[in-house]
Amino acid sequence: MPGSAFVPVSPSSLVTFASCRLRWLLTRAGGDGPAIGSAALGTLVHEVLADGGDADAAALGGRLDLSFGRLGLPAGWITRAKRAEAEAMLGRAAAYFEHAASLGWRRLAAEQQFTATVGRAQISGIVDRLETDDDGRIRVIDYKTGSSKPAAADLARHPQLGAYQVAVAEGAFGPDAIGAGAVLVQLGKAATTKAATSVQAQTPLADDPEPGWAHDAVADAAHAMAGSRFTATVGEGCRTCPVATSCPARPEGGMLT
Description:
Layout: E1 7-9, H1 11-19, H2 21-31, H3 37-52, H4 57-67, H5 77-102, E2 106-118, E3 121-132, E4 137-144, H6 159-169, E5 178-186, E6 199-202, H7 213-225
Parallel strand pairs: 1-3, 4-5
Antiparallel strand pairs: 2-3, 3-4, 5-6
Helix pairs in contact: 1-2, 1-6, 3-4, 3-5, 4-5, 6-7
């Protein structure tokens, strides 16, 4: 890759890249396979929330009725369980909308595409939700529908949230936008019983003791992504890695060593 070429960077991919560069490379090349099971259900929940506005749980459930059949699940207990799981996630989303409103946040956009450039990095993607307050500040919301979540100690330097904040700072959502942080909203099994404690927020860059950390992280990741060496890192993610059979650090991928 020429030294002057832009490097495409997806905020969501930065988490994988930070934990294991080889996994990032292989999944980027198609190693993840098609979305099935819980992944497909999570995608459907995202679509319902994008179309449903800040509706209550009943209204969101009505929208789910219109699209649930697209999953193509057979009749039976598995389908009923998946339906209940989706309804639970939408109920948590509705509770979050009420919680956010009580704190002065209101929806500005949903499923908003964006692009921003930082050095060689061209950050692009779609944010689940943008919120604004009476001061016109903007914060980015990312819905999580899985069963795991980052530790509280890791939020301050969470790469995906940091990339979203960089996008705001670089004018992706308006040239005069003032960032107010970025937030993970847990809707899946990682959520708690209360909306307030299912929210994982990252401090606005301007309030961080190292306000340039996220810009540096994105630029460093882009530089490494443009390289030619991608090492495997053994860690917690190995248990659920979709490309373990191609990994020289795993017994399943031993033939590659």
